[in-house]
C-alpha cells in the first residue's frame, strides 16, 4: 500500500502525480481507462481534494491523462501502445536545480520591461546610451584590430588588460598590484559568484551591509551561506558590530560596498574605514570590497579604497566597468592574493575557459586613451545633473511624502516613503502607470523604501516617471 511522505520537501500533489504516472506506466491503468475519482483518491490518501485536483492537473499538462466534465479523468488515448515514451517533466526539472531563481520582485520588473519597452526605467542599475562612451568604444572597435590570435586565452584574463589595470588601479584607487594578482571577470557579479563558490562552504556565515545590493542576490543563498546584516547609518556600517557578529556567529567573510553604496548611496566614513581594517585584521577576517561606483564621485575625489589602506593582505578588491562605462561589455576585475587568484582562475577555466578577449582588448585600449579621462569628467557632471532632476521632480510631486539623502556619487537614490503604502501593490500600480523602480525589501530593508536609479532615464522621462510614481503613491495612500 503506497503512502505519502509528509516529511519530504516534494509537495504532496507532486508525489501523487508521480505515483499515478508510475501505475499508468506499468500498465495498471491502461490507455482510455478511468482513474479513481478525485474524492475517492483524496479519501484513500488522507489529503484534501484540492491536492488531488492539482495532481491531475499536473498529469494533464504532461498529456498523460484527459478530463471531461462529468465523465471523470481517464488515461489519455495517445498512450495506447506508447506507454514507455514520456515527455520529460521539464517544469519539475527546472524547479529542482540547486541554483535559486531570482527574487519575485526582480522577475516582475524584468517582465514589465520586456513587455513594454516604453516603460520608464528607474530600476536597471546601468548607464543610458547618452551617458555611456558609445562613440569612443565604437571608434576603438572600428580601428584595425591588432589581435594576434584567437585561441583559448589565460582564464585569469587577457594580459594587456591586466597590465592596463595595474596602472588604472594605482592612478585612481591607490592600489599597488601586479598583473599576476588581477583576475578579469564578467563583471563584479561574477567576482561575487566566484568568491562565494570557491572560498566559502555551505553553512558558513558571512556579513553584509543592511540594506545591501548583495541581499538582492540569491547567489549567497544558493551557495548555502548564512547571511548576517550589518546595520548602516549615514556614515555606513559600525565596525564594532563586526566584533560581536564574529563572536556570536563565527562570520567568515564581510562583503562591503563602501563608496556610494547600492542602494543607499552612502560612503563609509574615513575614521570607520581605519577602525574596520584594525578590527578585521585583529580577527583575521577577510573583507570583499565591492567598489564599482567610486570613480563617479561628483567632486572627482573618492575616499581611498580599503585595499589601498590595507597593510595586512586581508582585502579582496573587486571593480567593474559597468557603472563607469558600459555594462554590456561585461568586464570586471578582482585583486587578491595569488592563492585566491589561482583558485578562482581554475574555477573559471572549468566554467567557460575564461572571458572573451575582444571586449577585454577594447577596455584595455579605452582605459589607456585620453578619451577615458574626458568621458569620466562628462559622466560625473551628467550624473549629478540627473540626480538633481530626480530630486526636483520628487519635491514637486511628493513634497512631504518622501525623505532621502542626496548621494554625492553613484547612480541610485534611496527613498523613504513617509505614508504607509503596500510595497507589492505600489509596484503593480506604478507598472500600470508606466514606471518601474526597485522596492526596498529587495535589498533587505523594511518595507517603506524604494531605490530609484537616475542613470538610465533621460531628463524628460525622469519628470514623467516621477509624476506616474506620485499618482501611484497617492492612489494607494491610506486615507
Ligand atoms: C554594488 C554592486 N556590486 C556588483 C554589481 C554587479 O555589477 P556588474 O556585474 O555589472 O559589474 C552591482 C550592479 O548593480 C552593484 O551595484
UniProtKB/TrEMBL annotation:
Under Pfam families, the record lists: Aminotran_1_2, GntR
Q: Does the keyword Chloroplast apply?
A: no
Cofactor dependence: pyridoxal 5'-phosphate
Residue ranges constituting the HTH gntR-type domain according to the UniProt record: 10-78
Keywords, sorted A to Z? Aminotransferase, DNA-binding, Pyridoxal phosphate, Transcription, Transcription regulation, Transferase
A molecular-function term among this protein's GO annotations: DNA-binding transcription factor activity
PANTHER family (alphabetical): HTH-TYPE TRANSCRIPTIONAL REGULATORY PROTEIN GABR, TRANSCRIPTIONAL REGULATORY PROTEIN
Family membership noted in the UniProt record: In the C-terminal section; belongs to the class-I pyridoxal-phosphate-dependent aminotransferase family.
What's the protein here called?
Answer: PLP-dependent aminotransferase family protein
Q: Which organism is it from?
A: Cohnella thailandensis
Amino acid at each position: 500500500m503506497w503512502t505519502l511522505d509528509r516529511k519530504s520537501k516534494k509537495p504532496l500533489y507532486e508525489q501523487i502525480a508521480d505515483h499515478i504516472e508510475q501505475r499508468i506506466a506499468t500498465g495498471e491503468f491502461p490507455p482510455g481507462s478511468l482513474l479513481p475519482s478525485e474524492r475517492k483518491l483524496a479519501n484513500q490518501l488522507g489529503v484534501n481534494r484540492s491536492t488531488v485536483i492539482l495532481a491531475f492537473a499536473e498529469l494533464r499538462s504532461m498529456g498523460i491523462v484527459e478530463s471531461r466534465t462529468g465523465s471523470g479523468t481517464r488515461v489519455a488515448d495517445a498512450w495506447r501502445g506508447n506507454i514507455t515514451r514520456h515527455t520529460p517533466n521539464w517544469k519539475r526539472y527546472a524547479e529542482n536545480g540547486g541554483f535559486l531563481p531570482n527574487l519575485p520582485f526582480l522577475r516582475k520588473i524584468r517582465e514589465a520591461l520586456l513587455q513594454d519597452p516604453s516603460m520608464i526605467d528607474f530600476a536597471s542599475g546601468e548607464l543610458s546610451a547618452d551617458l555611456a562612451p558609445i562613440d569612443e568604444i565604437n571608434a576603438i572597435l572600428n580601428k584595425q584590430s591588432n589581435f594576434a590570435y584567437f585561441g583559448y586565452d589565460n582564464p585569469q584574463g587577457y594580459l594587456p588588460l591586466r597590465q592596463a589595470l595595474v596602472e588604472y588601479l594605482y592612478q585612481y584607487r591607490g592600489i599597488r598590484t601586479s598583473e599576476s594578482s588581477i583576475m578579469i571577470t564578467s563583471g563584479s557579479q561574477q567576482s561575487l559568484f566566484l568568491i562565494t563558490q570557491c572560498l566559502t562552504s555551505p553553512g558558513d556565515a558571512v556579513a553584509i551591509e543592511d540594506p545591501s545590493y548583495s541581499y538582492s542576490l540569491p547567489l549567497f543563498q544558493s551557495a548555502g551561506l548564512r547571511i548576517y546584516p550589518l546595520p548602516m547609518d549615514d556614515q555606513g556600517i559600525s565596525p564594532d558590530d563586526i566584533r560581536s557578529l564574529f563572536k556570536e556567529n563565527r562570520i567568515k567573510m564581510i562583503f562591503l560596498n563602501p563608496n556610494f553604496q547600492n542602494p543607499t548611496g552612502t560612503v563609509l566614513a574615513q575614521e570607520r574605514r581605519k577602525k574596520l581594517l584594525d578590527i578585521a585584521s585583529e580577527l583575521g577576517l577577510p573583507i570583499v570590497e565591492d567598489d564599482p561606483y567610486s570613480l563617479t564621485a561628483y567632486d572627482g575625489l573618492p575616499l581611498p579604497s580599503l585595499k589601498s589602506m590595507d597593510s595586512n593582505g586581508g582585502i579582496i578588491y573587486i571593480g567593474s566597468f559597468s557603472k563607469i562605462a558600459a555594462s554590456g561589455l561585461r568586464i570586471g576585475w578582482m585583486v587578491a592574493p595569488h592563492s585566491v587568484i589561482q583558485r578562482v582562475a581554475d574555477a573559471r577555466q572549468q566554467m567557460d575557459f575564461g572571458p572573451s578577449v575582444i571586449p577585454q582588448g577594447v577596455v584595455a585600449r579605452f582605459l589607456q586613451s585620453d578619451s577615458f579621462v574626458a568621458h569620466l569628467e562628462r559622466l560625473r557632471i551628467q550624473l549629478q545633473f540627473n540626480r538633481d532632476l530626480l530630486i526636483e521632480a520628487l519635491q514637486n510631486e511628493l513634497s512631504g511624502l518622501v525623505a532621502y539623502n542626496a548621494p554625492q556619487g553613484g547612480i541610485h537614490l534611496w527613498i523613504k516613503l513617509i505614508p504607509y503604502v503596500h510595497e507589492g501593490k505600489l509596484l503593480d500600480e506604478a507598472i500600470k502607470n508606466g514606471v518601474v523602480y526597485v522596492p526596498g525589501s529587495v535589498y533587505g530593508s523594511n518595507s517603506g523604501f524604494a531605490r530609484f536609479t537616475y542613470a538610465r532615464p533621460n531628463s524628460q522621462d525622469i519628470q514623467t516617471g516621477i509624476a506616474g510614481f506620485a499618482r501611484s503613491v497617492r492612489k494607494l495612500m491610506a486615507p
